[in-house]
């Protein structure tokens, strides 16, 4: 009787403990996304960035305008949790922030050309036109391109247009742990 009561109390105390992720840190140069619970590192995930990172002549930097294939650098928050869009699950990052808008003004970039829709996401439902074109150049048939991308492209190459990609199983876990307005710091 005492043992079953002790086990029940232990189970209830463990099951009521919930993780509260207070910050996401992305280190672009290390290709990692870290989840922080207060001052404690909870977990680290590998990430993929822009397709341009596969080009040895590409110079990584902060995002300046739409279409530059860069991932932002700065301090943001998760502004929305999204499901069933181009990706099963994604987290919208609050890019551009006021500093990004200021930098664009200084560089003479119109605000409507700064871009947006920077996400943390898993694999898309369908490969992008750029990934499809790359697969076609390699001789991958249209009927097998989806599976080829999941098995051989997404895990080993950078492939986004400036977003932060993680494996689908990692995205499922991250999505459950992150709340709207969670802070995200993205470093070079």
Descriptive notes:
There is one protein chain. By secondary structure, the protein is an alpha+beta fold. The chain has a single domain, classed as L,D-transpeptidase catalytic domain-like, CATH 2.40.440. It is built from five helices and eight strands; from the N terminus they run αβββββαβααβαβ. The protein has helices at 2-16, 98-107, 129-137, 145-153, 168-177; strands spanning 23-27, 32-37, 40-46, 74-83, 89-93, 119-121, 164-165, 183-187. It has an eight-stranded mixed sheet, covered by helices on one side. Helix 3 packs across helix 4. The radius of gyration is 19 Å and the shape is globular.
CATH superfamily: L,D-transpeptidase catalytic domain-like
* H and E order: HEEEEEHEHHEHE
| CATH topology heading | L,D-transpeptidase catalytic domain-like
Strand content: 15-25%
Q: What form results from the Cα inertia axes?
A: globular
Essential attributes:
188 residues, L,D-transpeptidase catalytic domain-like, 8-stranded mixed sheet, 8 strands, 28% helix
What's the quick description here?
With 188 residues, this protein is of the alpha+beta class. The protein has helices spanning 2-16, 98-107, 129-137, 145-153, 168-177, and strands at 23-27, 32-37, 40-46, 74-83, 89-93, 119-121, 164-165, 183-187.
